[in-house]
Amino acid sequence: MDQRLTRSGLTSRRQFLQFASIGVAAAALPPLVSQPSQAQGHVTPAQITLAQPFSIVKPPMLKPGDTVGMVAPASNAYELEEIAIAKETMEQYGFKVILGQYIAAQNGYLAGTDQQRADDVNQMFQRPDIQGIVTFMGGYGCSRILPLLDYAQIRSHPKVIVGHSDITSLLLAIHRQTGLITFHGSSGLTGVGDYARSHFRRVIMSTAPIGEIAKPPQTATGEVERNHRLITIVPGQATGQLIGGNLTLVTNLLGTPFEPDTRDKIFFLEEIGEEPYRVDRMLTQLWLAGKFHQAAGIALGHFVDCYSKEYQPSFPQTLSLETILRDRFMPLQKPTLYNLMFGHIRENAVLPIGATATLDATAKTLAIDENAVT
Protein backbone atom coordinates (compact mmCIF):
# COMPACT_ATOMS: atom_id res chain seq x y z
CA MET A 1 0.00 0.00 0.00
CA ASP A 2 1.32 3.41 -0.96
CA GLN A 3 1.64 5.41 2.26
CA ARG A 4 2.63 8.60 0.42
CA LEU A 5 -0.84 10.04 0.44
CA THR A 6 -1.68 13.71 0.60
CA ARG A 7 -4.54 15.38 2.42
CA SER A 8 -6.60 18.46 2.04
CA GLY A 9 -9.43 17.97 4.52
CA LEU A 10 -11.42 14.90 3.50
CA THR A 11 -9.15 13.92 0.59
CA SER A 12 -6.34 12.12 2.40
CA ARG A 13 -8.67 10.19 4.67
CA ARG A 14 -10.67 9.01 1.63
CA GLN A 15 -7.47 8.22 -0.27
CA PHE A 16 -6.20 6.14 2.62
CA LEU A 17 -9.40 4.17 2.78
CA GLN A 18 -9.49 3.64 -1.00
CA PHE A 19 -5.88 2.47 -1.12
CA ALA A 20 -6.39 0.18 1.88
CA SER A 21 -9.68 -1.34 0.73
CA ILE A 22 -9.91 -4.69 -1.05
CA GLY A 23 -12.43 -5.01 -3.88
CA VAL A 24 -15.28 -7.38 -3.12
CA ALA A 25 -18.62 -8.27 -4.67
CA ALA A 26 -21.52 -5.90 -4.14
CA ALA A 27 -23.92 -6.49 -1.26
CA ALA A 28 -27.57 -5.53 -1.02
CA LEU A 29 -27.70 -1.85 -0.19
CA PRO A 30 -30.38 0.66 0.76
CA PRO A 31 -31.30 3.31 -1.84
CA LEU A 32 -29.81 6.77 -1.59
CA VAL A 33 -31.66 8.86 0.97
CA SER A 34 -32.50 12.38 -0.12
CA GLN A 35 -31.87 15.28 2.22
CA PRO A 36 -35.07 16.15 4.12
CA SER A 37 -36.55 19.58 3.65
CA GLN A 38 -37.49 20.17 7.25
CA ALA A 39 -35.12 22.09 9.52
CA GLN A 40 -33.16 19.87 11.86
CA GLY A 41 -32.89 20.44 15.59
CA HIS A 42 -30.05 22.53 16.93
CA VAL A 43 -28.35 22.50 20.30
CA THR A 44 -26.17 25.39 21.41
CA PRO A 45 -22.92 24.82 23.31
CA ALA A 46 -24.43 26.56 26.32
CA GLN A 47 -26.99 23.77 26.56
CA ILE A 48 -24.27 21.11 26.94
CA THR A 49 -22.73 20.59 30.34
CA LEU A 50 -19.22 19.33 30.96
CA ALA A 51 -19.69 15.89 32.45
CA GLN A 52 -18.05 15.02 35.71
CA PRO A 53 -15.89 11.89 35.56
CA PHE A 54 -18.05 8.78 35.38
CA SER A 55 -17.14 5.36 36.67
CA ILE A 56 -15.86 3.14 33.88
CA VAL A 57 -18.47 1.05 32.07
CA LYS A 58 -17.32 -1.99 30.07
CA PRO A 59 -19.63 -3.03 27.22
CA PRO A 60 -20.65 -6.64 26.65
CA MET A 61 -18.25 -8.73 24.57
CA LEU A 62 -19.06 -9.30 20.91
CA LYS A 63 -19.06 -12.86 19.60
CA PRO A 64 -19.60 -14.59 16.26
CA GLY A 65 -23.27 -14.59 15.36
CA ASP A 66 -23.95 -11.24 17.07
CA THR A 67 -25.68 -8.46 15.17
CA VAL A 68 -23.82 -5.16 14.82
CA GLY A 69 -25.15 -1.91 13.44
CA MET A 70 -23.05 -0.05 10.88
CA VAL A 71 -23.41 3.74 10.85
CA ALA A 72 -21.83 6.62 8.93
CA PRO A 73 -21.53 9.43 11.51
CA ALA A 74 -19.10 11.46 9.39
CA SER A 75 -18.55 11.46 5.61
CA ASN A 76 -20.71 9.84 2.99
CA ALA A 77 -19.95 6.96 0.67
CA TYR A 78 -18.49 8.18 -2.61
CA GLU A 79 -19.88 5.07 -4.29
CA LEU A 80 -22.36 2.53 -2.94
CA GLU A 81 -19.80 -0.25 -3.46
CA GLU A 82 -17.84 1.26 -0.55
CA ILE A 83 -20.70 0.40 1.79
CA ALA A 84 -20.63 -3.16 0.47
CA ILE A 85 -16.89 -3.37 1.18
CA ALA A 86 -17.32 -2.01 4.71
CA LYS A 87 -20.18 -4.40 5.44
CA GLU A 88 -18.24 -7.43 4.25
CA THR A 89 -15.20 -6.39 6.29
CA MET A 90 -17.23 -6.67 9.49
CA GLU A 91 -18.85 -9.91 8.36
CA GLN A 92 -15.35 -11.45 8.44
CA TYR A 93 -15.70 -11.59 12.24
CA GLY A 94 -18.86 -13.67 11.97
CA PHE A 95 -21.19 -10.75 12.66
CA LYS A 96 -24.54 -10.10 11.08
CA VAL A 97 -24.39 -6.47 9.90
CA ILE A 98 -27.44 -4.21 9.90
CA LEU A 99 -26.96 -0.95 8.00
CA GLY A 100 -28.11 2.31 9.54
CA GLN A 101 -31.22 3.90 8.07
CA TYR A 102 -29.26 6.84 6.67
CA ILE A 103 -25.90 5.19 5.90
CA ALA A 104 -26.33 5.92 2.18
CA ALA A 105 -27.60 9.48 2.66
CA GLN A 106 -25.84 12.28 0.81
CA ASN A 107 -25.39 15.83 2.05
CA GLY A 108 -22.33 17.25 0.32
CA TYR A 109 -19.32 15.73 2.09
CA LEU A 110 -21.54 14.43 4.91
CA ALA A 111 -23.55 11.21 5.17
CA GLY A 112 -26.84 13.03 5.54
CA THR A 113 -27.83 15.85 7.86
CA ASP A 114 -26.45 16.13 11.37
CA GLN A 115 -29.79 14.93 12.75
CA GLN A 116 -29.88 11.90 10.43
CA ARG A 117 -26.39 10.81 11.38
CA ALA A 118 -27.07 11.33 15.09
CA ASP A 119 -30.37 9.45 14.80
CA ASP A 120 -28.59 6.43 13.35
CA VAL A 121 -26.14 6.34 16.28
CA ASN A 122 -28.88 6.84 18.87
CA GLN A 123 -31.08 4.17 17.32
CA MET A 124 -28.30 1.59 17.26
CA PHE A 125 -27.68 2.09 20.98
CA GLN A 126 -31.41 1.89 21.65
CA ARG A 127 -32.24 -1.21 19.59
CA PRO A 128 -32.21 -4.40 21.72
CA ASP A 129 -31.41 -6.55 18.65
CA ILE A 130 -28.09 -4.72 18.08
CA GLN A 131 -25.16 -5.95 20.19
CA GLY A 132 -22.46 -3.57 18.92
CA ILE A 133 -21.83 -0.58 16.67
CA VAL A 134 -19.24 -0.30 13.91
CA THR A 135 -18.51 2.69 11.72
CA PHE A 136 -18.42 2.89 7.94
CA MET A 137 -15.50 5.34 7.69
CA GLY A 138 -14.18 8.62 9.07
CA GLY A 139 -13.64 11.69 6.90
CA TYR A 140 -15.36 14.69 8.50
CA GLY A 141 -18.49 15.47 10.47
CA CYS A 142 -18.55 13.58 13.79
CA SER A 143 -18.01 16.73 15.85
CA ARG A 144 -21.18 18.22 14.37
CA ILE A 145 -23.43 15.51 15.84
CA LEU A 146 -22.03 15.42 19.38
CA PRO A 147 -24.70 17.74 20.86
CA LEU A 148 -27.44 15.57 19.33
CA LEU A 149 -26.48 12.27 20.95
CA ASP A 150 -28.51 10.76 23.81
CA TYR A 151 -25.73 10.13 26.34
CA ALA A 152 -28.06 8.98 29.10
CA GLN A 153 -29.41 6.27 26.82
CA ILE A 154 -25.90 5.31 25.73
CA ARG A 155 -24.80 4.84 29.35
CA SER A 156 -27.87 2.76 30.16
CA HIS A 157 -27.42 0.61 27.02
CA PRO A 158 -23.63 0.14 26.83
CA LYS A 159 -22.36 -1.41 23.61
CA VAL A 160 -19.07 -1.74 21.79
CA ILE A 161 -18.47 1.13 19.36
CA VAL A 162 -15.34 1.14 17.21
CA GLY A 163 -13.68 3.39 14.62
CA HIS A 164 -10.79 5.79 14.12
CA SER A 165 -9.75 8.96 12.28
CA ASP A 166 -12.70 11.41 12.46
CA ILE A 167 -14.53 8.87 14.64
CA THR A 168 -12.12 10.01 17.38
CA SER A 169 -14.59 12.79 18.22
CA LEU A 170 -17.42 10.33 18.69
CA LEU A 171 -15.37 7.92 20.81
CA LEU A 172 -13.99 10.63 23.09
CA ALA A 173 -17.34 12.37 23.53
CA ILE A 174 -19.16 9.16 24.44
CA HIS A 175 -16.43 8.18 26.88
CA ARG A 176 -16.34 11.64 28.47
CA GLN A 177 -20.10 11.91 28.82
CA THR A 178 -20.84 8.32 29.91
CA GLY A 179 -17.69 6.55 31.14
CA LEU A 180 -18.20 3.84 28.50
CA ILE A 181 -15.03 2.21 27.17
CA THR A 182 -14.91 2.93 23.43
CA PHE A 183 -12.58 1.41 20.88
CA HIS A 184 -10.06 3.16 18.64
CA GLY A 185 -9.69 0.72 15.74
CA SER A 186 -10.34 0.21 12.06
CA SER A 187 -13.62 1.30 10.52
CA GLY A 188 -15.37 -0.95 8.03
CA LEU A 189 -13.94 0.63 4.90
CA THR A 190 -10.37 0.40 6.20
CA GLY A 191 -8.50 -2.47 4.61
CA VAL A 192 -7.60 -4.93 7.37
CA GLY A 193 -5.35 -7.96 7.45
CA ASP A 194 -4.45 -10.62 9.97
CA TYR A 195 -2.77 -8.11 12.33
CA ALA A 196 -5.82 -5.84 12.68
CA ARG A 197 -8.25 -8.77 12.86
CA SER A 198 -6.26 -10.46 15.62
CA HIS A 199 -6.26 -7.27 17.72
CA PHE A 200 -10.00 -6.82 17.18
CA ARG A 201 -10.67 -10.34 18.42
CA ARG A 202 -8.35 -10.02 21.43
CA VAL A 203 -9.74 -6.67 22.58
CA ILE A 204 -13.43 -6.79 21.62
CA MET A 205 -14.27 -10.50 21.34
CA SER A 206 -12.61 -11.84 24.51
CA THR A 207 -12.93 -11.18 28.24
CA ALA A 208 -9.36 -12.26 28.98
CA PRO A 209 -6.78 -9.63 30.05
CA ILE A 210 -5.50 -8.13 26.81
CA GLY A 211 -1.78 -7.78 27.49
CA GLU A 212 0.77 -6.31 25.10
CA ILE A 213 -0.63 -4.61 22.02
CA ALA A 214 0.44 -2.47 19.06
CA LYS A 215 3.87 -4.08 18.79
CA PRO A 216 5.44 -4.11 15.30
CA PRO A 217 4.86 -7.22 13.21
CA GLN A 218 7.99 -9.15 12.31
CA THR A 219 9.06 -10.30 8.89
CA ALA A 220 9.67 -13.96 8.05
CA THR A 221 13.29 -13.50 9.17
CA GLY A 222 12.28 -12.04 12.54
CA GLU A 223 13.10 -8.43 11.64
CA VAL A 224 10.96 -5.30 11.91
CA GLU A 225 10.45 -3.09 8.86
CA ARG A 226 12.12 0.30 9.08
CA ASN A 227 8.86 2.27 9.05
CA HIS A 228 7.55 0.17 11.97
CA ARG A 229 10.58 0.49 14.27
CA LEU A 230 9.69 1.71 17.77
CA ILE A 231 11.49 4.83 18.98
CA THR A 232 11.93 5.75 22.64
CA ILE A 233 11.75 9.52 22.98
CA VAL A 234 11.72 9.56 26.79
CA PRO A 235 12.48 6.33 28.72
CA GLY A 236 10.49 5.22 31.74
CA GLN A 237 7.28 3.48 32.70
CA ALA A 238 3.78 4.81 33.39
CA THR A 239 0.37 3.30 34.12
CA GLY A 240 -3.01 4.92 33.55
CA GLN A 241 -6.22 4.77 31.55
CA LEU A 242 -5.89 5.14 27.79
CA ILE A 243 -7.19 8.33 26.18
CA GLY A 244 -6.62 9.86 22.78
CA GLY A 245 -6.98 9.32 19.04
CA ASN A 246 -6.32 11.38 15.92
CA LEU A 247 -4.26 14.49 16.70
CA THR A 248 -6.41 16.86 14.64
CA LEU A 249 -9.65 15.72 16.25
CA VAL A 250 -8.26 15.67 19.79
CA THR A 251 -7.04 19.25 19.30
CA ASN A 252 -10.39 20.34 17.87
CA LEU A 253 -12.19 19.21 21.03
CA LEU A 254 -10.23 21.57 23.29
CA GLY A 255 -12.52 24.07 25.01
CA THR A 256 -15.64 21.96 24.41
CA PRO A 257 -17.70 19.81 26.80
CA PHE A 258 -16.13 16.78 25.10
CA GLU A 259 -12.50 17.74 25.72
CA PRO A 260 -10.50 14.66 26.75
CA ASP A 261 -9.28 14.51 30.34
CA THR A 262 -5.61 13.46 30.25
CA ARG A 263 -4.89 13.65 33.99
CA ASP A 264 -2.76 10.63 34.95
CA LYS A 265 -3.67 8.96 31.64
CA ILE A 266 -1.70 7.30 28.87
CA PHE A 267 -2.29 9.84 26.10
CA PHE A 268 -2.13 8.30 22.61
CA LEU A 269 -2.03 10.18 19.29
CA GLU A 270 -1.72 9.48 15.56
CA GLU A 271 -2.05 11.55 12.38
CA ILE A 272 -2.11 11.50 8.58
CA GLY A 273 -1.29 14.01 5.88
CA GLU A 274 -0.22 17.02 7.96
CA GLU A 275 2.97 18.92 7.19
CA PRO A 276 5.50 19.06 10.05
CA TYR A 277 4.64 22.65 10.97
CA ARG A 278 0.97 21.72 11.31
CA VAL A 279 1.82 18.79 13.57
CA ASP A 280 4.03 21.18 15.55
CA ARG A 281 1.17 23.69 15.84
CA MET A 282 -1.32 21.12 17.14
CA LEU A 283 1.14 19.58 19.58
CA THR A 284 1.99 23.05 20.82
CA GLN A 285 -1.69 23.84 21.36
CA LEU A 286 -2.11 20.69 23.43
CA TRP A 287 1.12 21.54 25.27
CA LEU A 288 -0.13 25.06 26.04
CA ALA A 289 -3.44 23.57 27.26
CA GLY A 290 -1.52 21.41 29.74
CA LYS A 291 -2.70 18.15 28.22
CA PHE A 292 0.79 16.66 28.03
CA HIS A 293 1.85 17.96 31.43
CA GLN A 294 -1.16 16.28 33.04
CA ALA A 295 -0.62 12.91 31.34
CA ALA A 296 1.28 10.04 32.90
CA GLY A 297 2.80 8.93 29.61
CA ILE A 298 2.63 9.50 25.85
CA ALA A 299 2.03 6.72 23.31
CA LEU A 300 2.49 7.87 19.71
CA GLY A 301 1.30 5.80 16.77
CA HIS A 302 2.06 6.20 13.08
CA PHE A 303 2.14 9.69 11.59
CA VAL A 304 1.52 8.82 7.94
CA ASP A 305 2.58 11.24 5.19
CA CYS A 306 3.52 13.93 7.70
CA TYR A 307 6.27 15.60 5.75
CA SER A 308 6.62 18.78 3.71
CA LYS A 309 4.75 18.78 0.42
CA GLU A 310 6.87 17.98 -2.62
CA TYR A 311 4.96 20.57 -4.67
CA GLN A 312 4.68 24.07 -3.25
CA PRO A 313 5.70 23.28 0.33
CA SER A 314 4.44 25.71 2.93
CA PHE A 315 8.03 26.59 3.89
CA PRO A 316 11.27 26.20 1.90
CA GLN A 317 12.90 24.75 5.00
CA THR A 318 11.38 22.34 7.49
CA LEU A 319 11.95 20.15 10.52
CA SER A 320 11.60 16.39 10.46
CA LEU A 321 8.67 14.86 12.29
CA GLU A 322 10.95 13.05 14.73
CA THR A 323 12.73 16.33 15.52
CA ILE A 324 9.40 17.96 16.34
CA LEU A 325 8.30 15.07 18.53
CA ARG A 326 11.56 15.11 20.47
CA ASP A 327 11.39 18.89 20.85
CA ARG A 328 7.83 18.78 22.24
CA PHE A 329 8.11 15.73 24.51
CA MET A 330 11.68 15.41 25.76
CA PRO A 331 11.46 18.49 28.06
CA LEU A 332 8.40 16.98 29.78
CA GLN A 333 10.41 13.93 30.91
CA LYS A 334 7.34 11.70 30.77
CA PRO A 335 7.66 8.19 29.30
CA THR A 336 7.14 8.61 25.55
CA LEU A 337 7.17 5.89 22.89
CA TYR A 338 6.78 6.61 19.17
CA ASN A 339 5.64 4.55 16.16
CA LEU A 340 3.32 2.06 17.81
CA MET A 341 1.07 0.15 15.44
CA PHE A 342 -2.09 2.24 15.38
CA GLY A 343 -3.40 4.97 13.12
CA HIS A 344 -3.99 5.23 9.38
CA ILE A 345 -2.25 1.96 8.62
CA ARG A 346 -3.44 -1.47 7.55
CA GLU A 347 -1.80 -3.08 10.62
CA ASN A 348 -4.02 -1.07 12.95
CA ALA A 349 -4.26 -2.19 16.58
CA VAL A 350 -7.42 -1.66 18.65
CA LEU A 351 -6.96 0.61 21.68
CA PRO A 352 -9.73 0.59 24.35
CA ILE A 353 -10.29 4.17 25.52
CA GLY A 354 -10.75 4.10 29.31
CA ALA A 355 -9.00 0.78 29.96
CA THR A 356 -5.93 0.76 32.23
CA ALA A 357 -2.65 0.32 30.38
CA THR A 358 1.07 0.31 31.16
CA LEU A 359 3.49 2.06 28.85
CA ASP A 360 7.13 1.03 29.16
CA ALA A 361 9.03 3.37 26.87
CA THR A 362 12.34 1.82 27.93
CA ALA A 363 11.30 -1.71 27.01
CA LYS A 364 9.26 -0.33 24.08
CA THR A 365 5.96 -1.94 25.06
CA LEU A 366 2.34 -0.95 25.57
CA ALA A 367 0.15 -3.41 27.48
CA ILE A 368 -3.51 -3.33 28.51
CA ASP A 369 -3.64 -4.50 32.12
CA GLU A 370 -7.25 -5.71 32.08
CA ASN A 371 -10.08 -6.85 29.85
CA ALA A 372 -12.09 -4.16 28.05
CA VAL A 373 -15.40 -6.01 27.70
CA THR A 374 -17.52 -8.17 29.97
Low-confidence spans? 1-11, 16-41
Q: Termini separation (Å)?
A: 36 Å
Radius of gyration: 19 Å
Element-by-element helix/strand order: HEHEHEHHEHEHEEEHEHHEHEEEE
Mean pLDDT: 89
Total helices: the number is 11
Oligomerization status of the protein chains: single chain
The share of residues in extended strands comes to 15-25%
* Protein structure class: alpha/beta
Question: In one word, what is the shape?
Answer: globular
**How much helix, percentage-wise, in residues?**
25-40%
User: Looking across the biggest beta sheet, what order are the strands in?
Assistant: 6-14-13-8-9-10-11-7
Q: Largest sheet, if any?
A: 8 strands, mixed
Total beta strand runs: 14
SSE arrangement:
Blueprint: H1 10-20, E1 67-71, H2 80-91, E2 96-99, H3 114-126, E3 132-135, H4 142-145, H5 151-156, E4 160-163, H6 168-178, E5 182-184, H7 194-204, E6 211-213, E7 231-234, E8 237-246, H8 247-252, E9 266-272, H9 276-288, H10 291-294, E10 297-304, H11 321-329, E11 336-338, E12 351-353, E13 356-360, E14 365-368
Parallel strand pairs: 1-2, 1-3, 3-4, 4-5, 8-9, 9-10, 10-11
Antiparallel strand pairs: 5-12, 6-14, 7-11, 8-13, 13-14
Helix pairs in contact: 9-11
